[in-house]
Design brief:
The structure is a single chain. This protein is an alpha/beta fold. The chain has a single domain, classed as P-loop containing nucleotide triphosphate hydrolases (Rossmann fold). It is built from seven helices and nine strands, in the order E-H-E-E-H-E-E-H-E-H-E-H-E-H-E-H. The strands form two sheets. It has a seven-stranded parallel beta sheet with strand order 4-2-6-1-7-8-9, with helices on both faces. A two-stranded parallel sheet has the order 3-5. The termini are close together. The mean pLDDT is 93.
Length: 206
């Protein structure tokens, strides 16, 4: 794999950061960018990706905004007294960049901007991170529909959690998208286990 992708989730805490870490672990040429970090009380997503992938710190690009509360960016920014300016999210053309979004594709960024507006502006293919469990079909199809309405290229979907072939098939058939693979539960998360998982379960990075 040698290309840039946006990692977008069907919901919060679906596993976008784990997927990003895996991609960083298997490709030493990739850089990672989390434009908006909401929540600073624990490890940031950038710190998690660096720790899990054991990548060089130079491959982690600085966040455009670091907001204190683990809330939707528009609300977290308001509580911090910050206005999120979409102009700060311009990116240089980079053939090896992973951008992890904040939450789902319709999460508000400010009073006038949704996450999907930034996704459209970046004009990069999206890998959708989705849960494998009950409810994922609806959430995944809604995400797919929203992206297609904006003519956003969808690289495919990665299911995260217990392997569920029926849910995978439903998302693929009804959403008319590719299932790129899956990340089953891992007893330990580190560079070694992520690299092995990638080789075994994500065909597009082989």
């Amino acid at each position: 794999m040698s290309s840039s992708y946006i990692i977008a989730g069907t919901d919060t805490n679906v596993g976008k950061t784990v997927l990003s870490s895996l991609l960083m672990a298997v490709n030493d040429d990739l850089c990672y960018w989390k434009p908006i970090q909401s929540g600073m009380s624990e490890e940031t997503d950038s710190q998690t990706v660096q720790r899990l992938s054991a990548c060089d710190a130079k491959r982690i690009l600085p966040e455009a905004y670091k907001l204190q509360q683990p809330l939707s960016p528009h609300l977290s920014a308001r509580l911090d007294g910050v206005h999120i300016d979409p102009d700060k999210f311009q990116i240089l053309k980079n053939d090896n960049l992973i951008i992890e979004t904040a939450g789902g594709v319709l999460v508000p960024i400010n009073e006038d901007t949704l996450q999907i507006d930034l996704i459209t502006m970046w004009s990069l293919p999206v890998i959708i991170a989705a849960r494998s469990s009950l409810g994922t079909i609806n959430h995944s199809l809604l995400t797919i529909e929203a992206l297609k309405k904006r003519s956003v290229a969808i690289a495919g979907v990665v299911l995260i959690g217990e392997i569920n072939p029926e849910n995978e098939k439903a998302i693929e058939d009804y959403g008319k998208v590719s299932i790129l693979g899956r990340i089953p539960p891992l007893s330990h998360l580190n560079k070694g286990t992520l690299r092995l998982c990638g080789k075994e379960h994500l065909a597009f990075i082989r």
